[in-house]
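subagent[fold] <- orchestrator: predict structure for attached chain, return tokens only, no commentary.
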Amino acid sequence: MQMPIANAPTADLPAEQRLDVIDALRGFALAGVLLSNLRDFSLYTLIEESAQARGERWLQMLLAALLDAKAMTVFALLFGVGFALQLERAGDDAQARRRYAWRLCLLLGFGLLHAAFWYGDILRYYAVLGLLLLPLARCRPATLAMLGVLVAVFATALLQPFMRPWSAQFAPAAQAAAAARAAFESPQWASMLAGNRDYDLWLHATAWSLPFFTLGRLLLGMAIGRAGWLQRPQQHLRAWRRLLAWSLPTGLILAVYFLFRDFGGLGPELPGIRGDAARALSRLLRNLAYLSLGLGYVAGFVLLFQHPRARRWLGWLAPVGRMALSNYLAQTAFGLALFYGVGAGLGPRYGLTGVLVAFAVVFAAQAALSHWWLRRFRYGPLEWVWRCLTYRRALPLRRAAAAAAAPEPARG
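subagent[fold] -> orchestrator:
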């Protein structure tokens, strides 16, 4: 359930002023988002473990260690960075701040509409939490970073003993998954949409930790944006190197640990610790694993991007990131068309191997289309709709038309 926020950091900048490292990093994360979500679209995550191909167990382990929750971490961090940049440009301009709040309300509308078709939408969380974070926009980077770590790592571990009774009142996961799979395999749109609604309600009621997961990363992204690490990476290379040296080894060590835990059939018990204390400590370590490896990916990408040869290769991802909203929603359309009963109905029959093939085809097509589109137009199609609704007027889309048009309203 890993989904991007589209172009929040730099959508209001003219093309020549965009921050390429953010766009390329978003494109990189979008690839991870697609690969992760295709497992859901293919219904692979809804089938019983006994029905999953044993020969793909190594692939399951690899994706669990390196992908799960990491792409989502990168995108949430980028939204936090964009949140800080947008409000920094707005300054004390009350109108610009209201416009950005309206922009988040529009994002909430996109998210609610998308959630009607796919239960995995997270744009709703970005929009609502973004509105709630407006009062923190002027906080110091160190304060935001401290709050982010507390929320992302410690909050759910402390709350877990109190939330177990809440989760227990809902249907078991296997029962909810079986009902959802039956609905998604149906060729009837009404059955699919009703099943999606029910599974969406169940999932977001039982996944009570998701708001904390997201909020912590938004706060950390705000800290990075306020400190200028992504806007001026050359001035902060020492900080990026320190972050990489701390986060990547920590994340990899914990990822290996949880591979043995999750795929070795071990319970939550730890040496000398049992019961609720063991479960709370296990969740804390898992939170740290997700966050540290995601931060390691960001730091490694930024440092690689400073080398000209690597920048030429990684820059290929920038157009994908500039059209993140359009590409993300198109990924949902591809997923439904390929795997759901209302489309081709492939479902999970080809396992994770089929998911990898679909990923390669879909992402290559999206990359090619993004390059083609942005040579002709200033913004992605849905990014343009979002901008027009934000400013409540039709804005030029074609590059030639945009060059000849009168100046647009002041950016917020």
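orchestrator: received. Logging for downstream: Residues 2-17, 404-412 have pLDDT under 50 and may be disordered. Residues 275-305 form the longest helix (31 residues).
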